[in-house]
Amino acid sequence: MVLYQKGEYRAFEELYARHSGRVYGYLKSRLSDGGEVDDLVQQVFFKLHQSRSRFNSSYPFLPWLFAIVRNLQIDFMRKRKAIPMDVEKLGLAVESQLHKSGEQILFDDSMRGLAPAERDLIKLRFEEGLSFDDISRRIGLTPSNARKRISRLMGRLRKGMRS
Fold it and tell me: Could you tell me the pLDDT band of residue 117, with boundaries at 50, 70 and 90?
């Protein structure tokens, strides 16, 4: 990396050859889409190029590189939007899965069992397609709490449809 900082651009090729496989493996273990992984690997090395002047040679290279990897992955996950799905389609998807297992319970009945505020959370996520960050800002929770509440609600809906 020090050579690359000094302007030896072949050093970049060596950095890429040595570390792109490890970066790819790390991202592949966290993302399912190979195309997204390929894009992020390219972004990592582009960011390395942009940030080369900030590398401090008194510290090891790999932790610095993987800080870039983790930060780009986190940014990517934050920007990834939920697939918009209205509640009716969600109900049909869940209902079709239940039909496969022999159960014939309607999603709408389970939704009616939720409090209005709980139904609103489900609608924000699946009808409006909002991310957990957007939902958290709208209702005054942390993104983690919004995710937990929606996950628990989905669990209750699944359980209610099986009872």
Answer: confident
- Distance of alpha carbon 87 from its chain centroid, rounded? 21
Task: Please state the φ and ψ torsions of residue 26, each to the nearest 5 degrees.
Answer: -60, -50
Q: What is the maximum alpha-carbon separation in the chain?
A: 68
**Main-chain phi, psi angles of 36, to 5 degrees:** -65, -40
* pTM strictly above 0.70: no
132 membership: H or E segment, kind and range: helix 132-139
Pick left, alpha or beta for residue 115 (phi over 0 → left; psi -120 to 50 → alpha; otherwise beta).
Answer: beta
DSSP 47-83: HHHHHGGG--TTS-HHHHHHHHHHHHHHHHHHHPPPP
Tokens encoding 58: 């008194």
Single out the residue of 118, 123, 120, 131 nearest to residue 76, CA to CA.
131
How many C-beta atoms surround the C-beta of residue 77 within 10 A?
11
